[in-house]
Amino acid sequence: MEDQFLLFHGTPSSDTTYLLETVENGSARLATHTEIDQKLGGTAAQIMLCGHTHIPRIVETLQKSLIVNPGSVGLPAYEDTTPEHHVMEAGSHHARYAILEHKNGTWQAELIAVDYDYQQAAAQARKNGHLDWEYSLQTGRIIPTQSGMEKVFV
């Protein structure tokens, strides 16, 4: 049971580095197995729980570790400048969490999205002068003109 679980924010060695995403050309994409292995730096556990990106994901490594990012409760989209300018968007206002279950000798993860009073949270963000957070809480996206990046909405 030792080394079964490992919990960290970004990666095992950095709170500010994305584990499951790679940022390039202003966008974030799912990191390759090689990129994830490099960011793990030899760290291993059956189940690894991470966050930081606010994007819900379940990824299995080549070594059969299960990595789970449950997503976010309260900030489904944001803009960042590290390692370069980019946006992270969950695409909806839902609060997110994950359920881990050990069944028949293997771990399973389920990502859950639930509704909550996001309008109240958005109103509080507006009251506090955070119009960007208000929009994010309502839509799961950043304000299109906020980043200066062209966005096409269908």
Written description of the protein model:
By secondary structure, this protein is of the alpha/beta class. Helix content is 18%, strand content 31%. It contains three helices and ten strands, in the order βββαβββββββαα. It has helices at 33-40, 118-127, 131-139, and strands at 5-7, 21-24, 27-30, 47-49, 57-60, 66-69, 77-80, 86-89, 95-103, 106-114. The strands form four sheets. A four-stranded mixed sheet has the order 1-4-6-5, with no helix packed on it. The chain has a two-stranded antiparallel ribbon with strand order 2-3.
The gist of it:
The protein has helices at residues 33-40, 118-127, 131-139, and strands at 5-7, 21-24, 27-30, 47-49, 57-60, 66-69, 77-80, 86-89, 95-103, 106-114. The chain starts with a strand and ends in a 15-residue tail after the last helix.
CATH topological fold name = Purple Acid Phosphatase, chain A, domain 2
Order of helices and strands: EEEHEEEEEEEHH
CATH hierarchy class name: Alpha Beta
Strand percentage lies at: 25-35%
The SS-based structural class is alpha/beta
Query: Strand tally, please?
Result: 10
Low-confidence blocks of residues: 149-154
The strand order across the widest sheet is 1-4-6-5
Count of helical segments? Answer: 3
CATH superfamily: Metallo-dependent phosphatases
